[in-house]
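Many introductory courses stop at the sequence. We go one step further.
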Amino acid sequence: MHAGSPLLVATDAIDQASVASSPRSGPSVAIIVPAIYAALTIVLIAVARRRHWFRIDPGVIPPEKNAGIYGFGFFALLLAQAFGAYVAARLLGLSGGPSDRREKALLMLGGYAIQLPLALALGLTFGILRKNRSTLALAGLATLALAWPVIQTAYVVAASTQKALTQGAPPSVGHETLAEIATGSSDPWAAVIVVCVVVCAPLIEEIGYRGALQGCLRALRLKAWPAILVTSSVFVVMHLPALSMDGLAGSLAQLFVLSVALGLIRERTQSLLPCVVAHAAFNALNIVLAKFLATLAAP
């Protein structure tokens, strides 16, 4: 489930582009902004510990008999995407060319056409349509707002380490789908991809990972934090094919921190809705940033 996975923009890319287009004296914005993120991260972790935000009691503990159903649902979603994309390619004669937005969009739609019915059926069992939807949606947005500095700090640390070891600069956009969107504003198929990654992907992936996989682990009586960490590790590994190798460390760090935050809010609210909203907002925000970056880089 990575075709429409979380989209990643390098945390300092916009700052560097801004400096290049409008050079000024004084400390580099690309240094100041990560420093602010790091300071916010320290403050947020201190506040979270003080207010016991990391404490999960009791969290989501499904009946043990549901472990098999949830595990089957997770793997069924994985296979459904591949099967749907295969059927779309065969029926429409698609080659899956990396630079063809139309084919990429149709392959994504083919995968989601098979995944969505299964995901929605699973989602109903996880309480995605439970009461207090507006409050839960706001909880999702608040989760992303609080996690954002931590996500960006994780990127800076990991990307800087990779850069020091490999002597290669990470790309400004770390996800191939996001790169397609950023450079295809006049292509109507780019708009189809945007809908897929902002609407379909968050819904399906949160039902799959936070709902089915994390739910399966919890039904097997794994404690909340180990279940969150295992789910986040699988989440990261499954997104490897969509990530740029040049910026791999930073992208993996961002994805892992995002996934941990989503797993935590899933356990604390006992609902998937905040996870879906936070995931969708994360993708949408990165699309906006990538578009802005493309504008700054344009001659």
